[in-house]
Design goal:
Blueprint: E1 7-10, H1 14-25, E2 30-33, H2 39-53, E3 62-64, H3 68-72, E4 77-80, H4 86-94, E5 105-108, H5 115-119, E6 128-133, E7 142-147, H6 153-165, E8 169-172, H7 182-198, H8 204-221, H9 224-232, H10 237-254, H11 263-272, H12 282-296
Parallel strand pairs: 1-2, 1-4, 2-3, 4-5, 5-6, 7-8
Antiparallel strand pairs: 6-7
Helix pairs in contact: 1-2, 2-12, 7-11
């Protein structure tokens, strides 16, 4: 992919507009398709935010296309970012039959569905994969890539290289799993966090403060596994597990294990979150993440 190569974004909500901003900030012509009349403005606002995060950011054009066929004409990358739902996503992908350029990569932003089920019956299933970003797309460098049964290794390699050209750090997930890796890790932490708040063990603000100013500081620089090794003095994960086997088993046995929040928990959470501080806007949020990313970069 050259930086001027056209990119098509089908669905320009928060995630799709972030993709549009990302590619445009690296000089691509981006064509969006979305029924929302505010989609173009939202995408251009996101581009303005993206340009503040990186010196030398370019300002490719973001245009609106009437339909998918117009958007994908000549495109080298098509990013599907419509709302989560198998029927809707498969319908959108079906609309690409007969109009998709022969070498274009088709990527889905899905956080719950796999490329295999999305690409079933599609003539371009070998060029279809999941490219799952975090929010905001243009601020968080990591993108999870996961192919389906028919996705070729060449497609995954080409997708990874394309994302590197757009300043991303692609992570290849080797198995199709609900939520891939990022959302599964998030869900595990979120379940325990919600349970602790619902039990009255800690307040919402204190829990967020404990994570953001405590355990996540190590995660931001090294990740959770390396952080635990560093704190334990162990040199390998196997050594760490042997040293902590007893205490870890007792701790794991005490963790929340519900699959759906119990009714008592929902009521407790409702009371606990009354008056919670509102999230910052996307641009402010992106700037905060940008500062964290810069601080966490390895020296030298």
């Amino acid at each position: 992919m050259t930086r001027a190569a056209p990119v098509a974004i089908i669905g320009a909500g928060e995630i799709g507009s972030g993709w549009a901003a990302l590619f445009a900030s690296y000089g691509a012509e981006v064509r969006i398709v979305d029924p929302d009349p505010r989609a173009l403005e939202r995408s251009r606002d996101a581009l303005a935010c993206a340009r503040t995060l990186r010196k030398g950011a370019e300002s490719g054009r973001i245009l609106r296309s009437a339909n998918a066929a117009d958007a994908v004409r000549g495109a080298v990358w098509v990013q599907e970012s419509v709302p989560e739902g198998l029927v809707l996503k498969r319908t959108v992908l079906a609309s690409l039959e007969g109009v998709l350029p022969p070498d274009a990569i088709v990527a889905s932003s899905t956080s719950t569905l796999g490329a295999s089920v999305l690409g079933e019956g599609r003539s371009f299933a070998n060029r279809l994969l999941v490219a799952h970003p975090l929010y905001p797309v243009y601020a968080v460098p990591v993108v999870e890539l996961c192919g389906g049964r028919e996705t070729t290794q060449a497609t995954i390699a080409r997708a990874a290289e394309t994302l590197r050209l757009a300043g991303r750090e692609p992570i290849i997930v080797q198995r199709e799993l609900p939520g891939l890796v990022a959302n599964r890790l998030t869900a595990a932490l979120l379940r325990e966090a919600l349970d602790l708040v619902a039990q009255g063990a800690i307040g919402v603000r204190d829990l967020d403060h404990l994570v953001s100013r405590g355990i996540a500081t190590g995660w931001a620089t090294r990740g959770p596994l390396a952080t635990e090794l560093a704190g334990s003095g162990a040199s390998t994960l196997d050594e760490f597990l042997k040293d902590t086997e007893g205490p870890m088993a007792a701790l794991l046995a005490s963790l929340a294990d519900w699959r759906a929040m119990p009714p008592w928990g929902r009521e407790a959470l409702r009371r606990a979150t009354q008056g919670a501080v509102a999230m910052p806007g996307e641009c402010e949020w992106a700037a905060m993440i940008g500062r964290v990313m810069k601080a966490a970069e390895p020296s030298g």
